[in-house]
Amino acid sequence: MLDIFQAEDWCTVVQGTPKFQPPEIVSGISENYRGRKVDIWACGVTLY
User: Rounded to whole angstroms, how far apart are CA atoms 35 and 10?
Assistant: First the structure.
């Protein structure tokens, strides 16, 4: 997914398993988020 998003792209639709999502998305704090940062978070969770 990293090659699809640019660093400045914003996303508004939440998809995927909550255990792979960053805390601010799971808790509902943020309605918009950076797609690339979310993908990096999910990659880190997977590698951990």
Answer: 6
Domain ranges of the chain: 10-47
Tell me the HSE value of 36 on the side-chain side, using a 13 A CA sphere: 8
Across 1-48, the runs of DSSP E, i.e. the strands, are 10-11, 33-34
Classify 33 as helix, strand or coil: strand
Amino acid at 15: Q
Q: List, for residues 3-37, the tens digit of each pLDDT value.
A: 666 667 777 777 788 888 888 888 888 788 887 78
Exposure of 18 in the CB half-sphere (CA atoms within 13 A): 6
Predicted TM-score (pTM) of this structure: 0.65
